[in-house]
Amino acid sequence: MSDKRADPEDGKPDGLILYDFDPRNIPNEYLRAIGLVAMASAQTESTMQDFIGAILHIDNIETLALTTHMTVPMKEQVARTVIELNAASAAVVDEVDDILDRIRDALAKRNVMIHSPLCRHPHTEEVSSQRLSARGTIDFELRPISVKEIEDVAEEIYDAGMDLMRFMMAAQIGPLERPHQLRQPLPRSKKARESRRQQKSRN
User: Would you list the domain boundaries of the chain?
Assistant: First the structure.
């Protein structure tokens, strides 16, 4: 990636700066911070799943079956819907909506962090985040970013998820444990179904 700006290192007023986008060359402290954002996001999403299952009074395995492949916006909307249907009062709905607003805003920052490549200046080694938008027009920016800025996003995501966890603890709700063991996964192919039917017909 190049940027047509003055490069103080080579003295060329219109010199091209060739930024290094190889993730293997990004300083480890940045990679650690980005990883922290990803893990905080996973934790918060897991809490949202538990919340949905708890409100619906389904067990932990059914909760996983229902929510695992939901997108984050779908989890948020389902969580808002089930609390409205089951809350004792409008005040409870408002409290959960406030928490889900914080989660939504925090995870929006996650999207920016995770989907914006980092790069290094070839001479100063300053790390920047590439921000690109193509909604109606192309908007491109290389913005210097610090490790602390990334870590602050991770903290915000984690704290928002913990707000939801604290609500669940105060309300004394949580995922129910499945009362019996899971059976082995059932082969679900057309061939497997036909084989079971044939076996049943012979018995």
Answer: 2-202
Please say if the pLDDT value at position 7 is more than 90: no
Q: Specify the pTM.
A: 0.83
Q: Contact at 8 Å (CB) between 131 and 145? A: no
Q: How far apart are CA 35 and CA 154, in angstroms?
A: 9
15 falls in which pLDDT band (50, 70, 90)?
A: low
- List own/partner pairs for 125-131 with CB under 8 A and 24 or more apart: 127/26, 127/27, 127/30, 128/19, 130/1, 130/21
pLDDT tens, position by position, 157-200: 999 999 999 999 999 998 899 888 777 888 999 999 999 999 88
Residue 4 β-bridge partners: 16
Which residues is 118 bridged to in the sheet? 129
What pLDDT score was predicted for residue 14? 57
Asked if 53 contacts 67 with a C-beta cutoff of 8 angstroms, the reply is yes
Q: In what order do the strands lie in the sheet with 139-144?
A: 118-120, 127-133, 139-144
The Cα–Cα gap between 69 and 199 comes to: 34
For the residues of 14-65, what is the DSSP string, one character each?
Answer: TPEEE-B--GGGS-HHHHHHHHHHHHHHHHHHHHHHHHHHHHHT-BHHHHHH
